[in-house]
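task queued by scheduler; priority normal; single chain, no ligands, no partner chains; default sampling; output format set to structure tokens
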Amino acid sequence: MGANLALNLADSGESVAVYNRTPATTMEFMAGEAVNLDVISSVSLEELVESLVRPRRILLMISAGKPVDSVIEDLVPLLEPGDVIIDGGNSLYVDTDRRTRSLTDLGLHYLGIGVSGGEVGARFGPSIMPGGDPEAWPLVESTLKNIAAIAPDGKPCCEWMGPNGAGHFVKMVHNGIEYGDMQVIAEAYDLMRRGLGMSPPEIAGVFEEWNQGRLRSYLVEITAEILATHEDGEPLVEKILDAAGQKGTGKWTVNASLDLGEPTTLVSEAVYARVVSSNPEHRQLAADVFGDATGSPEVTVADIESALYASKIISYTQGFRLMSRASSDYGWGLEPGTIASIWRAGCIIRAEFLEDITAAYEGPTPPTDLSLHEFFAAALKEAEPSWRRVVAGAVSAGIPVPAYASALTYFDGMRSRRLPANLIQAQRDFFGAHTFERTDRPRGEFFHHNW
């Protein structure tokens, strides 16, 4: 992505200097697509810094964690007050908080920007989520907006998110939602493949059809292409080992949701589904003992589409609630409508769906809970019967649908006027004198009973 961002910057009219710790990588880049562009190479960080005009703007595209701290440590002695360091990788937002504050104390500016779109997006227009030092934003705003994707209404998919770790937090939640989107699509595929006995080309046709309607999105589009791809006369997807990898941003989202007390149950199940998939040898042992799923759920393709759509609404509801809670707790001032708007193009989760979310948040009465907005509430009510049939049918057939089931359970929990938490509070008070509130007294008054 770093190489493609450099090319994108050069295409936009910027003069670019590049450096990689491996000289051969730099030489290969310079001899390739960069050969006729306004790009110069550097053999050291010192040479890179010397080649830049002040205030210097240095974009890091390296692995999160210690590598970022290491490069910053090497850069700081070479820079002067007012220079800008930009971390465009998937850094954890608390690290960005720390780096922004420490570099501000040294007179340097620091930005942590989320960049989504993969290699192609980086080359031709990603979605960009900047945060960090507000004083640095005017120094890079036009540059970043010039290389960002363009939404259908002509707006660049890049806007200021907020101070300190705000940009990387939004990118983290974006990636968590991406985990969820991929899982709900995978569950639809599994239900059609194992449950309904459809072939990959047949399922590809379904996804192609879905991509013409309310599920129109980049991920649905590429899913149709994947399922239609053959190798040696057989569907390639059937030859791919069913062990999913992950880089950690989904887990970070779940951890943040626990820290902030705002559930992201669908993302959590998507993360755990990858963990379960990652040990196919153990799953084979369990299948030998218990048998594999052999049932056929009594559902239709239309039912599955409704379950996918409803679960997607819940996932985005949870994601936006998490961002709102973080914004409130950390004082970031995140704007949900702006976030939805810059996700409409360039990023991995770009979808028609985000136009509806943008419209909801930019309307006269922005929702505090997306699922309660008139448009999405009506969609959930309409989808509910199919959603329940899919979850019940999958459970009966022995086909796991953790994302659909967790989304439905959250939906049922959030609309329950009464939950069994009263019994839990009684238990806590019984064994630990943790006290409880009462239904016949105002909130905030706590009582203990001598059980």
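post-processing summary
- The longest strand covers residues 109-116.
- The chain has a mean pLDDT of 96.
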